């Protein structure tokens, strides 16, 4: 039997694939390559290129491979862009998830691990987010992820679906030199590209109520995240009772200023960030507790901030060589 990883050619999905393989679990990848890369899929892993909106392809994939569960990572992940492309976001994240669940039910596949997002919380009134923190998404992206969780919840009632959703903030680093974050909207790639092009990275505001005046956020290593996806899949395979949602959080976070200092030290490119105005709505500090996931899903911060920056920088350099 194998697990289907949707979005398995992307940055996070490709790490999930490798985490499954490291545990001796077979995988099948489905990805439309809208943001993924075919070369991220390991040799020998079945790769189905196409979209979740193609119901015929979904039916064919479940019929062709012995799939016992799904890790659903695929989706349109750009919160800022989702504000100007709401219909596209809902199509990719809500319609596609509903079609996937329908295909799973038709094929008799009853287990799913959903890659959700801490964007479901919006701007919480607490600086330490737990699974019980009120959900108030502030973008179509965050809303679409929350609706995805609702779809799993309702399908569990209707068809006995075994499921869990993993929420997290900022995923960084690399678990393998050939895998990297290529998003033009994420902090690490933006900082690296600025340095490579001779520009000075920018910080949005340094007058927050934090130790160094810059925002504090959760940054977690992608390989650590991948391990917990596999742990969740194993729990579902075993028929264990697990929570419907988990936060994969650091519990303490790091500041944007700390990240910039670490980038300068790791890359050997000295710079002083340009300080721009703060962005409207940015809270001083948002960090998630990972206590429940640590208890149930082998969640832990195995990498330091320096590890995260160094691995990400090495993967970016490998891409250029």
From TrEMBL:
What reaction does this enzyme carry out catalytically? UDP-alpha-D-glucose = UDP-alpha-D-galactose
The record's Pfam families line, in alphabetical order, gives:
Epimerase
Annotated family? Belongs to the NAD(P)-dependent epimerase/dehydratase family.
Q: Does the keyword tRNA processing apply?
A: no
Chain's gene name: galE
Q: Which cofactor does it need?
A: NAD(+)
- Sequence ranges assigned to domain NAD-dependent epimerase/dehydratase in this UniProt record: 3-249
GO biological process: one example: galactose catabolic process via UDP-galactose, Leloir pathway
Pathway(s) it belongs to: Carbohydrate metabolism; galactose metabolism
GO terms for MF: UDP-glucose 4-epimerase activity
Class of the enzyme per the UniProt entry, highest EC level: isomerase
Question: What keywords tag this UniProt record?
Answer: Carbohydrate metabolism, Isomerase, NAD
Name the source's superkingdom.
Answer: Bacteria
Write the Enzyme Commission number(s) for this entry.
5.1.3.2
Write down what this protein is called: UDP-glucose 4-epimerase
């Amino acid at each position: 039997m194998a697990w289907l990883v949707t979005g398995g050619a992307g940055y996070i999905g490709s790490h999930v694939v490798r985490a499954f393989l490291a545990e001796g679990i077979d995988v099948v990848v489905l990805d439309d390559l809208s943001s993924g890369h075919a070369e991220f899929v390991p040799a020998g892993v079945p790769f189905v290129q196409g979209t979740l909106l193609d119901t015929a392809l979904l039916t064919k994939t479940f019929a062709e491979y012995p799939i016992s569960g799904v890790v659903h990572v695929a989706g349109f992940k750009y919160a800022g862009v989702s504000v100007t492309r709401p219909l596209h976001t809902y199509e990719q994240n809500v319609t596609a998830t509903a079609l996937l669940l329908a295909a799973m039910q038709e094929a008799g596949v009853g287990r799913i691990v959903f890659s959700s997002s801490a964007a479901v919380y919006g701007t919480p009134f607490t600086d330490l987010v737990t699974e019980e923190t009120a959900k108030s998404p502030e973008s179509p992206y965050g809303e679409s992820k929350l609706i995805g969780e609702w779809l799993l919840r309702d399908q569990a009632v209707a068809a006995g679906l075994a499921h869990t959703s993993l929420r997290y903030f900022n995923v960084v680093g690399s678990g393998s030199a050939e895998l990297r974050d290529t998003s033009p909207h994420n902090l690490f790639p933006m900082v690296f590209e600025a340095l490579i092009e001779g520009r000075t990275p920018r910080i949005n505001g340094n007058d927050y109520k934090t130790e160094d005046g810059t925002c504090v956020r959760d940054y977690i290593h992608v390989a650590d995240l991948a391990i917990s996806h596999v742990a969740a899949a194993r729990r579902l395979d075993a028929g264990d009772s697990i929570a419907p949602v988990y936060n994969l959080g650091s519990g303490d976070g790091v500041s944007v200023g700390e990240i910039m200092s670490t980038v300068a030290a790791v890359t050997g490119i000295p710079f002083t960030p340009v300080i721009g105005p703060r962005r409207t709505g940015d809270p001083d500090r948002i960090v998630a507790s990972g206590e429940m996931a640590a208890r149930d899903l082998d969640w832990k911060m195995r990498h330091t901030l320096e590890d995260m920056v160094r691995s990400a920088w090495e993967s970016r350099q490998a891409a250029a060589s």
